[in-house]
Amino acid sequence: MKNTVLTLKDIVKSYADGPSRRMVLNHVDLDVAAEEFVAIVGPSGCGKSTLLNIAGMMLSADAGEIFLCGQKVSDLPQKRWTAIRREKIGFIFQNHQLLPYLKAGEQLSVLMQTDDATVRELFRELNIEHVIDQFPAKLSGGERQRVAIARAFASDGDLILADEPTASLDSERGRHAVEMIRMEAHKRGKGAVMVPHDARVLDLVDRIYKMEDGQLSEVG
Ligand SMILES: Nc1ncnc2c1ncn2[C@@H]1O[C@H](COP(=O)(O)OP(=O)(O)OP(=O)(O)O)[C@@H](O)[C@H]1O
Ligand SMILES: [Mg+2]
């Protein structure tokens, strides 16, 4: 049995909806093992990003427990979340948040303390070597997205969370990026959870979960 890198237990999340509350996650459970690449699919608004944000300690749940690499993190005070997130998780956001005042390469070397050779190697693998000394404002959407992917790979953490990581890439580059996430999980022993932008990459994942009525069920 491989180590479990992420466990969500009985997660509940609702949002205020006028005078009532709308239940988005209704007792969700999920286990992701090292070397496992998991996809979560479901219609727009069903709660996929909410789930990823809770797993990535960007958002608190109303109830339930979160374990990262066996450590229960859901009980820790929120002021410690940033440090845990930095240590354990590489997060690829849909809107690829890069810091505007750092050059592309520095998003890794400064933020993640990645050495120059590794930065160069990651940029080469993602075909963005030419933007290494550019600021984000000078990059195309797809280049920015690949810098964000490289930054998530530079994380030493055991978990990769990717929310539509290929939304601004054409299908060929998008598939290549998802292949790299798969390799990162399989070769470097990380667990990865992705909300895919494009169903054509689902053949690359190990397990698919469908989100429906606030609950996850395995497909196939
Ligand atoms: N901060 C918030 N306050 C209130 N409602 C919210 C908030 N964030 C999300 N929601 C609602 O929760 C539901 C789930 O949103 P979420 O972003 O998780 O969906 P999703 O499955 O990621 O959708 P998409 O595929 O469009 O990205 C939606 O109905 C959304 O309107
Ligand atoms: Mg979403």
Task: State the gist of this model.
This is Putative hemin import ATP-binding protein HrtA. With 220 residues, the protein is α/β, with parallel strands linked by helices.
Give a description of the structure.
The chain is of the alpha/beta class and about 220 residues long. The chain has a single domain, classed as Rossmann fold (3-Layer(aba) Sandwich), CATH 3.40.50.300. Helices cover about 30% and strands about 30% of the residues. It is built from 6 helices and 10 strands. A 6-stranded mixed beta sheet has the order 6-7-8-3-9-10, with helices on both faces. A hairpin with a 2-residue loop joins strand 4 and strand 5. It binds adenosine-5'-triphosphate and magnesium ion. The site of adenosine-5'-triphosphate (ATP) has 10 residues, from helix 1. Part of the ABC transporter complex hrt involved in hemin import. Responsible for energy coupling to the transport system. Its main location: membrane. It comes from Pseudoramibacter porci. The complex is composed of two ATP-binding proteins (HrtA), two transmembrane proteins (HrtB) and a solute-binding protein. Belongs to the ABC transporter superfamily. HrtA family.
